[in-house]
Amino acid sequence: MVALATSVTHSVDRTAVLRNASLELFRARGVYLAEVTVVIPRSWESKGNWARQPLPRVEAPSWQQWDRADILIERGEESVFGENPFAVQYAGCGVQGRHLVVPDTFLRSYAANGEHAANWFDKYGKPHHVFLREWAVYRYGVFKEHGFPRDPVYPLYLPRSGSQDPNDIELNVCADRPVRPEFRNGNGMSCNATINLMNGLPLDHDCIPVYSVQHDAVEASLMSGLPSATHFCGSPRPHDQTLPTKHNVMCNQRSTTEVIEQHPDFHQRPRSGLLGRTRFIFVQEKAQVLAFVIQITGATMQHNRRNYILRALNQFLRSEAPSDMQIALVTYGTVASEIALRRASANDESVRNAVDAFLLNADIESGNSINSTLEDGLRSALEALNDTSEITERVPPNGFTKRVMIIGDGHLDQHFDDIVRHNFDIQGIRVDAIIFPSPEAAAAASASTTSFASSHASDGLTSGKGPSSPRRPMPKRDNTLDTFVAQTGGRTVAVDDTPIDTSITVTALQELYDSLYTFTYAGTSAAQYDSFSQIEQKEFYGKEQNEMVFEFDVDPTLNAELRVRLVGHDYGSDRPWTVSPKDILLFAPIGHTNGKKLYSPKDYKYVSTNAQFWYYEFKIPDPAVGRWRLEAKARKDTKQPIIVSSAAKPATDDDEPISVDVWISQPSYNVSLREEGLIVYAKVSKGSRPVVDVNVVAKIIPVSDQTETQMCIELKDNGAGDPDMTKDDGVYSRYIEGIKSIGRHRLVVEVKTEGNAAVLRGATVPDDSVPHTACCGSAVMRTALNATRPFARRVSFGSFFVTRVAREQRDGEVRAPWSIPGRIADLHVVYLQSSHGGHGGVSLGWTATGNVRDHGRAAAYILKRFDNRNDAVTQFDERGQEISQWEVEGSAPLPKEAGNPEQVFIKLANGISLPQYFALKVNNTYGVLSAVSNIVTISVLPPVTTTTSSIWGLGSSPGQGGSGVSGGATVGDSSFTDQLPSDRRGDLRLLPGQLALIIAVPLVLLVLGVCILIVIVAKRRRDPLLDKDKKVSTNDKSNATSLNALNNGTLPKDPNVANTTPVLTPSPVLKEGLSPVTTMAPHLPLSSSMTLDHVPMTIDHSISMSDPMNMSVTMSINQVPPQQPGGLSPVNHWPAEVLLEHYNRVQEAKQRNELPPVLSLQPGHPDESVHSSNPSVYNTIDPFRHRHQSGNTAPACQINGAVQHPVNTHGGIYSPYYGNVAPIVTPTGVHVNSSRNITHV
């Protein structure tokens, strides 16, 4: 199924690429695309506007839903991957993806040019090969077999095995022989592909291979991305298992052919017949005909539920139903199954009144006799959908999409008639269900859960008091309706309508509102241009209702027809309403100029019925972008909640809204928590572009068992591998841990950001010969992005039915087979290091996994080193050398909470042979091990002495994509001495007494050293200026000789004096305890002709206390010479005891793993007191820093090449990071930066 976005250009050929790809798939694997259904958006109007001649036959969609299409054709402008198609691949090997996204630019500029687009073929290959590659990723769950730029896990190229030459590389692609392409950067200029010996990764991140069909015609895997590739790797073509490709890591070294062959598509291969020809069917979204199937029984109509259903249907039909919708009404239960209202227009007021009258007057017979079942109601619904006797105008056969909506207790006999099921299938009727469990069903579910848990807990054992009690029968799973609904493409929503004082809750009414609207518009393209998306919702209880404040953000992509609604309930029509119209005010965003700033009661409508439900509703056609605020007060406290919600429609057809797509890893009708875990996924995107750095929370609300509490779980997009496959792809996921009851649970996902999120987009490539990066390595590159405004979304997935739960946990026992630590899939090299002694080390990093999948904290890591790669993959437990504590710099890493970064430095033995291979497993508190991580290969080590620029690539030329400033500092040589011989590390073990002695001796020495240091520091701090008078006379004499000699504690600069150790001398002002302000030379005359332009100065105003009139004021001016390159920074204005105290604070901050404080002065303080804080090491009035900035002041954030960087806006106050880039932490802990910092000193 192919669905087209509303923003896509009409004149795009959508069939040529699919036909050619189908033929190629048939030639390669013996299967083809037999039938393709193309769904046309309703906004495209008639087929004459978009179809090519001859015009195809267009039908109304039946089971097809726009948001569940296999292929989505989206607008290609600013796509993250350029014109490349890409699959939304959210799960592991062999699992089908969510969608295959094809940018319309791929069809316009690439595929439509055919054989004339030679430069496009050189970049990517033939169009159908490109499509087939991404189709294999989506359909068969394989991964790419090549590297990616800026990827530490799957690099573009590697050092050749056995070579220490950084220029000797080999590409990370699956091919039969070495490939030697050109290398260019994003500007199209040639660059050198070299290896950074400090980490074994590409030195120039922007230097990428550019292939050519003629020059690089090698036999390669279709997943390698080479333009000449035509087949998949695997038998009979060789597959390279040693390459660090994503396919090898995720599929455990299996070839793509082996994975593809296991798909059901290849169980019966049609090797004859139509020879790969594809049949295309065009359907266009049409109006809906909806049959309501409502259960009428004493149980389902309890607690005045009749009025609650009546209220929701009344609101839906009069305010939210599409104007061209037709409806029918069918009942079943204690009444005979019949068509209460034949098919008619929902826009007709008489039809709406007929629905109200029927529900109010429906007779419910006494007793529990059931006259008709849901199966009878579904048969009547089939008849009602096809009955047009009440329709006066002509109805075309395929002019409507047929839907059924069930409202009842959700019970459907498991021996459901196959004939009825078949009729729904062939007519393509979608069924949705709104279920509110009856007391009998809820009690049965609770008892079933109890018996299920007790049967597993007892496990056939007897108690200490007599024989064992008989085991209760296993619970009966009443999920037949859920199964049937899912098979028709529909969804189920279970409503929690637990009564409060025999009255239906307002929460249940709000859920019914949302369900009716969602079922009507879900699955259609209207979500992109003409349907409400919920922004936020909040419930107020008890005392909270006295002062209700509801704030929400309207963002630019969703700022049309804002709707704000308050829903409440009163216990009787004779009582005053809970909230008075006078107590509700809606405030528009502060600072906006268009529209009103305050909305009062005259701007909304008030609706009330005899069901004692009320709501207030604001409708604002063109709301301002920003934060809105609603304030309301309740006149009395109620047990019922008051619900406030906000929703809006997309702004324009051209700009896609930020949307959220939610799904789960198991079928919604059969969720088993025994064999495998449940994963919730939420894709946040703007069209085809991912939205990153947002807060995504999944809420699990139990419905069948009211004793279970609601769970809130934050979803992650960290690319750790289990469950999140790719970082920054906009797909947030998490395992759900803690569901304990069988039955239905409702899932709601809330997305929110305060403005720190961003929409990723593709960077502009000036040279057409340079290809865009394909999707996806370990992460999506943030080459360019657009910051978002604050926004929020709230999406209801519906309900899922849990059929099996994990048994009660005993001490040290695994609850379920899936309760194992998650596998680490992002193990990578942080840096390499060598030393004078000849042995160095490697720093490895990864993302911490949990004790159970991605939850909690694991017990330990098992890290091993191997001489053979196959041993690491297949015999991790039997082979390899486990890394001991003696081989780790510092202490062995203890697992952190899931999702946190981990890093460890491992010392390598002197003269160790290369390559070396590293892998690890995770051990949890149950003693269960995870699968083996990806394998890291160490095949090069850096030279003994390496400059900073060569380590970090800071001195590379712009043509090679390097960034930063070049530096000449060398990394300190750290010698790592092995504690034990390399051949005996795994054999020797220390006795407890020996280990205690080894620990105790260094501790004693450390304590003695600390005591000595404290004594020395105390003596130095006792009187830092011992020779006060002598130093005063010396400094005064030297400072009075010339204006060029500063009187502020600087070093004398005499070119005739030999280089000796400088001595820092404090100024007399500091010795007197005054503020560190420089003074004027004693004999400098003041005159009106004295020019002070462009002369930095400091002025010291002090009142002489010896003057009886207190009127004597002394002004001293000191001319400051220009700073020399070799001079000291203004940090020397401070006395030694202040610097020493600051140094101690820095050391304490490092021990706490915090950012070190920086010495600064309080800005604007007249006393200029010394403070230790983060802003700056410089005085705020320092003439070298506090200069007037010419031109306009830069904003807080600037877009430089579409990537935002923070900009200093505080004048002389600088952030802890000096320069254009953040400081780099080298292996020895040195912060490499061109600016001087007191912390570095």
TrEMBL record:
Keywords: Membrane, Transmembrane, Transmembrane helix
Stretch list, region Disordered: 453-479, 955-982, 1029-1059, 1157-1196
Pfam families on file: CLCA
Transmembrane region(s): 995-1018
Biased composition annotated in UniProt, kind: Polar residues: 1035-1050
Ranges of residues in domain VWFA: 289-516
CDD domains per UniProt: vWFA
One GO location term (cellular component): protein-containing complex
Biased composition (Gly residues): 956-970
Name of the protein in its database record: Calcium-activated chloride channel regulator 1-like
